[in-house]
Amino acid sequence: MKPSKFLLLLCTALLFSLNTFSKVTLPAIISSGMVLQQQSNVALWGKAKAGSKVTITTSWNQKAYLATTAKDGSWKLSVPTPKAGGPYTITFNDGEKLVLNDILIGEVWLCSGQSNMEMPVKGFGNQPITNSNELLSDADEPGVRLFRIEKNMSRTPLTELNAKWEHSNSETTGQFSAVGYQFARMLQQKLKVPVGIIQSAYGGTIIEAWMDKKSFAGFTDVKIPADTVKMIKNEPFVLFNAMINPIVGFNIKGALWYQGENNWFTPDTYDKKMEAMVKEWRSIWGCGDFSFYYVQLAPNAYPNGKDKLPVIYEKQAKAMQLIPNSGMAVSVDAGSQTTIHPPDKTIISKRLLYWALNKTYGKKGVAYSGPVYQSLKISDNKAIVSFSEIPIGLTAYNKPLISFEIAGADQVFHPAAATISGKTVVVQSDEVKSPVAVRYAFKDRAEGNLYNAEGLPAAPFRTDSW
């Protein structure tokens, strides 16, 4: 027998042997230590020998479920989960048992975006996180589980991940998203149920990289490079393929999104892209219109920005009307003039949490939105601005209001004095005798300090469309 023919037969035999005796294999997201969404039908999937039967037994109800593998060995089914609790086990059996241990039932959230979401509790080089050591010293919490996806990119959809579920402690938490971890920890404390938080974030990236290929229908400003060109992280859909696709289908209650810094110079279609991304994520995830809460960018001295940041402010605010079951956490008072990575991530996590507590978990007494611009009235040389979302009024905490500007018909804006009067803000300037328009914190570097009495900030706004 010729050597080449012998090798071919040997490889065929080995492949047949591996297929015959292949064991149940599971994706990284389905493993010991995971948190499954409570009171839902959660998806489980994996691979086994082609044409075989896989029995899945869940310890919380001692019921067995049967899956039949496809020709490629893949299988998928869903199982019902009870109220929060655990730890439990899940046993997979195709003739050989595979047991997952230490499984909790509770609430599951995804946190995604670019560097402000990626920024870990321990901070970046020379860029700290406020109270990081205190957070780390208090991180031993068995009811919080972390799943951090390593940064990766691909032009084709992947199913494998280099990641694992981990217990929250000072070491694992130090590496994890400061926004995501604090949201999960506070949610666990408020609801008193286990919380699993999944991190999929990559610094310096654009929204287009996180969108599925199907999401680009109708957009004319997206260029997809040829496969012969070296791949970069800001190509369309390469991060979705590598860092989102492998977990699609794993039941989540909601998603947190902190991104936009790399889209500030091309903001025109940002709101529509957010809408398209979320719509497609929800469609392929298959667990309904899960909650989607996101962070409006903070003021910053962008290089050669020329005040383009306010345009993305508006697009982010508009996205809330385009995306059902969504909410925006405002950070106009929580930025930094020296870094694009503001250190106070606690306040951001809290504001995301307020949206979740009220809108997702029904705690109606918890405020979630700051003042929202509603209307403008001109009275002599004064502009009177009215707001919604101010049930018991406005405040600047005994400090003068800042970052208000006013303009007349010449469309030239001047710094203005602004005072709270009941449930309105009165704006005026000696430079403008007949005001027409008002802007608030509508520049790249402009911070804001207008709040409702519940302590939540107003987002930057303008009354004009110039």
TrEMBL record:
Cleaved signal peptide residues: 1-22
GO terms for MF: sialate O-acetylesterase activity
GO BP annotations, alphabetical order: carbohydrate metabolic process
Coiled coil: none
The keyword Hydrolase is annotated on this UniProt entry: yes
Annotated ranges, domain Sialate O-acetylesterase: 107-328
Enzyme Commission number: 3.1.1.53
Enzyme class name: hydrolase
InterPro entries in the record: Ig-like_fold (IPR013783), SASA (IPR005181), SGNH_hydro_sf (IPR036514), SIAE (IPR039329)
Keyword Hydrolase among record annotations: yes
Gene3D superfamilies named among the record's database cross-references: Immunoglobulins, SGNH hydrolase
Keywords from the UniProt entry: Hydrolase, Signal
Designated name of the protein: Sialate O-acetylesterase
